[in-house]
Design a protein that fits this description.
Elements lengths: L5 H17 L8 E3 L2 E2 L19 E8 L2 E8 L2 E5 L3 E4 L8 E5 L4 E4 L1 E3 L2 E6 L2 E6 L3 E3 L25 E7 L4 H14 L4 E4 L8 H10 L3 E4 L15 H16 L5 E2 L8 H8 L5 E2 L3 E2 L2 H4 L2 H11 L5 E5 L3 H16 L3 E2 L2 H8 L8 E2 L5
Parallel strand pairs: 13-14, 13-19, 13-20, 14-15, 15-16, 17-21, 18-19
Antiparallel strand pairs: 1-2, 3-4, 5-8, 5-12, 6-7, 9-10, 10-11
Length: 362
């Protein structure tokens, strides 16, 4: 991607920060499946591994040079609840439950203790795991317009390459099978994740993605179809996904795909304001419909060409079965398996914010 003019970057980042202060995050109940809403989130011993004491400081976003970096800012600050969650009497998962915070509730955070946020609740001191409260000023560290570094030293630009992409996960029992195949055969793929799924055992999947060099993609918070929500809410559902992923692996998604591919010119423009292109696809395996691994394999092997972006879903066991065959088979056919961003850089393809990217054939 060609570097955006620094003044444009600063202007976009400044606008995002100003908007964040007034943003009402439309929290959506946490779900372990696309159609399965859960009861209020219970923080059963889960911790993000941070150890931040009550120093009166917390991370915020400032602009330094042409990048957004983390810096300290003083408490109190306003956060909003991503999903209905239990409030505990202490920063321990087995402590007394004082009540429930409903999604989108506003709280004033007073301090942070080892990954738990402290605030006043019905006249008492309450605690919620940090990842369930999104600060109004949150902006992802490595949004696409910041041109996150991409290592293509292992790629030969003169040889054919293909980007396998997986939507709607992570789902541990499926995603891990795909990651196992990547680990055993090499190459990288891109996962477009729902932020609401980045919980529990799925967290380890996201960490493995990073360890194996795969790309983290944003697929909104709970598969929010962008043409069914207000334009002003688009930033919110993207930001919520970024936050859940970044709280897990300390790195935010670098690419974005609209759920269902649903888009309009107005939607594209709104996403473009965040510095993000619209990653679509050129090969649709229809795996979500057929749930037939043989058909998925047939479609990819017959249709895929150099520069293609292939759509699959890591929520179906049948897709994992297909991927386990396709990953080595495509490499045997001479394809390099690369991420969306790796292919863009290797091919010199300019992913313009707000534009639709189907393939990178030149």
């Amino acid at each position: 991607m060609k570097r955006l003019n620094i003044f444009l970057i600063l202007a976009v980042a400044g606008a995002l920060m100003a908007e964040a202060a007034a943003c009402n995050a439309a929290g959506i109940p946490e779900a372990t499946d696309a159609s399965e809403a859960t009861s209020p989130a219970e923080v059963t011993g889960e911790s993000d591994g941070t150890a931040e004491g009550g120093s009166g400081e917390q991370e915020k976003i400032v602009i330094e040079s042409n990048k957004i970096e983390r810096a300290k800012f003083e408490f109190p600050y306003t956060s909003r609840v991503l999903t209905a969650v239990n409030v505990h009497a202490d920063s321990e998962s087995d402590s007394e439950v004082l009540g429930i915070l409903e999604e989108n509730a506003e709280v004033t955070v007073e301090r942070n203790i080892e990954g738990w946020e402290q605030f006043s609740f019905d006249g008492k001191t309450g605690y919620v795991l940090k990842k369930y409260l999104i600060p109004d000023q949150y902006v992802a560290m490595n949004n696409q317009f910041l041109e996150s570094p991409v290592d293509i030293s292992w790629i030969d630009p003169s040889k054919p390459m293909i980007a396998l992409t997986f939507d709607d996960g992570p789902k541990a029992e499926v995603t891990n099978r795909i990651l196992d195949s990547i680990q055993n055969n090499g190459g990288h793929v891109t996962f477009f994740m729902q932020g609401s799924r980045v919980v529990g055992e799925n967290n380890d999947c996201v960490k493995r993605m990073v360890e194996l060099g795969c790309e983290l993609g944003n697929h909104t918070y709970t598969h929010n179809y962008l043409d069914s929500i207000a334009l002003d809410d688009i930033r919110t559902v993207i930001r919520e996904c970024d936050y859940m992923v970044e709280e897990t692996v300390k790195a935010a998604p670098t690419v974005f795909r609209p759920p269902g591919g649903n888009r309009t010119a107005e939607i594209n423009a709104k996403v473009g304001e965040l510095g993000l292109p619209m990653i679509i696809w050129s090969v649709d395996t229809l795996d979500y419909s057929t749930k037939d691994p043989d058909n998925t394999i047939k479609v990819v092997l017959e249709q895929a060409k150099d520069g293609d972006i292939v759509l699959m879903h890591d929520t179906y066991a049948e897709t994992a079965t297909a991927a386990e065959y396709l990953i080595p088979a495509l490499q045997e056919k001479g394809f390099q398996l690369v991420t969306v961003s790796e292919m863009a850089k290797a091919k010199g393809y300019d992913m313009v914010p707000g534009s639709e990217v189907y393939n990178m054939r030149g």
